[in-house]
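User: Predict the complex.
Assistant: Input components as received:
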Amino acid sequence: MTYCIAQIPQWLAEPGLTHFLVISAILFSLGLLAVLTRRNVIMVLMGIELLLNSANINFIAFARYTTLALDAHLIALFVIILAAAEAAIALAIVLNIYQQFSTVNVDEVSTLRE
Amino acid sequence: MDLYAFFFYFFAVLTVGSAFVVVFSRNIIYSAFALMFTFFGVAALYVLLYADFVAVTQLLVYVGGILVLIIFGVMLTTKVFSVEMKTGTLNLLPATLFTAIIAGMLIFVFSATDWNVVPDQEWDTTVYGIGALLVNEFILPMQVAGVLLLVAMIGAVMMAARDWTKLKSK
Amino acid sequence: MTSDTLIQFALYILFLPLLGFLLLIFFGKRLPRQGDWIATGILGVTLLLSLIILFVKLLSYPAETFISQFTWIDFGDVPFIGPISVELGIMLDNLSVIMLVVVTLVSFLVHVFSIGYMQGDVRYSRYFAYLGLFSFSMLGIVITHNFLMMYIFWELVGLSSYLLIGHWYEKKTASDAAKKAFIVNRIGDAGMFVGIMIIFVTFSTFTFEKIFDSIAVGTIPFGSEAWLTAAGILIFCGAIGKSAQFPLHTWLPDAMEGPTPVSALIHAATMVAAGVYLIARTFTIMTGDALMVITYIGLITAIIGAVIAITQFDIKKVLAYSTISQLGYMVMALGTGAFTAGFFHLVTHASFKAGLFLGSGSVIHAMHEALHKKHDHQTDPQDIRNMGGLKKKMPVTYLTFLIFTLAISGVPFTSGFLSKDEILAGTLGFASVTGHYLVPVLAFLVAGLTAFYMFRLLILTFHGDHADSSRENDIHESPGVMTIPLIIFAALSLWFFYSFNPFGASSGWFYAAIERPMSVVPSVVQPVAAEVFKDAVHHAHTLAMVLSILIAGLGILFAFVVYHFRRVDADRLKNAAGPLYDFSYNKLYFDEMYDRSVVGGTMGLSNLSKWFDDTIIDGIVNGSAAITRWWSAFTGRFDNVVIDGLVNFSAYFTGFIGLILRKFQTGKVQTYIVFVIFSIIVFFFIFRTL
């Protein structure tokens, strides 16, 4: 598919599947950036939540615009369930790490390396 | 520009903007609160996509549950009254570069692909359909998810409630 | 009884041990007697069900194969590839039915034995839980009908083996041995995975039957027979790891750090036999070349195991190396095409080797108690030099141990004689058809060595006088829960369970039930046809029998002369053998070799990068001024400039590599993720154009 510049205003005016996908791509990249660069474990967790949200936006967008329909909604629901479980476990781990090492910075917790 | 487009852009900007704050704020408390706005924005986007049930679940679980958990995590592991709230960064340069490339790749792929779009589906409420699917085709995943949540709950309680002073003295 | 009932029984057999595992792992400590009766009872029930299946299957449906399956994932019609679906299911044919009985029988008896052996252990219930997990995974391997489940259960037995070897993980040697077993197995499994993927990419299915049918009609991977051979050898890699074949055999002797009943169950009778079972399952798709590789790997393993076993003093190490040797025997038998003989040896070996291990467990138990009573913690209860004269103190253990030893040495009227004899006949037949005469010669040599070292073990342990007469009175026969399994195994090591004719199994039920499957590979690469091979074996049979009795007799005689009557001094033999003895005593230096090459290589690489760092980079910094001066002084001279440039370049280049290598080893997860992302980007740009 090719676009010419004159089409862009019109394309912008009608939000469609691609718009949502682009939003999700931006969210994904931001989440990835948080996961990659932040030293604080909790920031990394927030990044993971952003990643999951961007995946969910994709699912729901495809549900709306393609034949995936309600199946995608269910998958999104399961993703949310998994996110909840993951957050609970991860924060329990974070608390344990904090009690053990008195820090929540990932790069300082490297006992496993030795 | 019709109302739909207006709302879309409003919430899209809200989502992306607060996500930027989440990632780039130096103060972790700000990040946590910005994350709440991101979740709200995403929920609104779900509504725009006719996904009412998922949107409500998003609000309940993410804003009501996960976010509160995260803020608890922040409070319990950070010295609130000192300057420790700032968070440092790691491999900033390569990570930013690669993330930018990934973003470009994704956006390129998403916009260049010729999606097989079914035009103008009009939907009623999805709750009935989701309920029907959950007790038919998706009964096994639902059960498994229930067990998973139970396991996660017990595991989290066990781990968080472990008495470290006792373990260390051993 | 219909086939549906049989399938149902098979499912009960598969999942009951899993139930036992779940019960014991969660509630084991709270159950009365820590739940050992649950685990043992469950295995008893599965044994009963397997026996029912065996009899019904062999008597009523001897030629049928029952399959029950469901589609797990249906990918539908995938573009460019065609329909892909993944089925899960179970299959009952004569092979799996016999194997079911072997696994449940050994597992049940080991459970019973463990009640006595593991009494008072700190993690008693967890031990039984892991035994249940192991039984579940092993039964899964046995009755699966596709490669995917085979692989999953394959990994699961690896896991349970890891957990059980490391049962006493407080001991450093035990936890090290567990890790070693796990990692070495993983090397083989990686090969197996690649083999399975070659098969899956070609046939879009994991199911054995569909794959065999597709090959039979001429579909082969990438249209070349070489790929089929490669797939066969790669799948055999899994067997190399699990069945401790050369060159990955080093984990099995170390695995003896686990409790002795575990060694009997996992590292003698069942899990290590899984590799042999895998070859038997996939025998149909093995090309002639692949089988040749299998034959020689098996042969090398058999010799290595036998040679090392001669000089070991740890009772369990001797048995471990003898297991390696016997596994090599089975693999070799399958490779030569003596399919039934190889599988037959698996079955007979399972009973007498499990018996040998349990017998050694009984001995170690008695020694341990006696040493414990004297508060002697220095003496090694497993060293046969500290034993001797146990014959009078432990009559039941001695008699059963004698029967097992006779069986493994291949003395007539034992099960071992029947199967070993068939294998030797198979190798002779193989040699006469293909001209590889090295195979039977070395196989007979191994048979003689086996008889020798097994009788050496028997004599040193049970005959003569006890090494320390002061503790002799403290040694007692083990309790009934430990001797009864021994007696049952001893009975199963006699000939009449397998064939009424003690000098040939080919008339027995086993040979009627298990037949070499027809090869489906293209005729150019087919192994020796079954009929030709059968003829050759038939001619060689009498010769093989006479020779095998003679050679086993020689080995036994020699062992008696040296160790019982002491006509020849063992030390003088040792000195005469000189370096050969050291070679064998140090296990052919395999561990040292792997230490130097694989482990040392990794360490060397890190040291090298450190050296680059310290010497070159610092050198560049410190010496840059000097180099600049040097450089300017000699600019006029062209050749020096070139040499200098080269030196500088190579130094810089090595320094650069050092820098990069150092960057990779940060230990920070996020840095690793950055690498992952980077590779994703690279892959995207590579495959974008496709």
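The CA atoms of residues 425 and 478 of chain C lie 40 Å apart.
Let me know if you want any component modeled separately.
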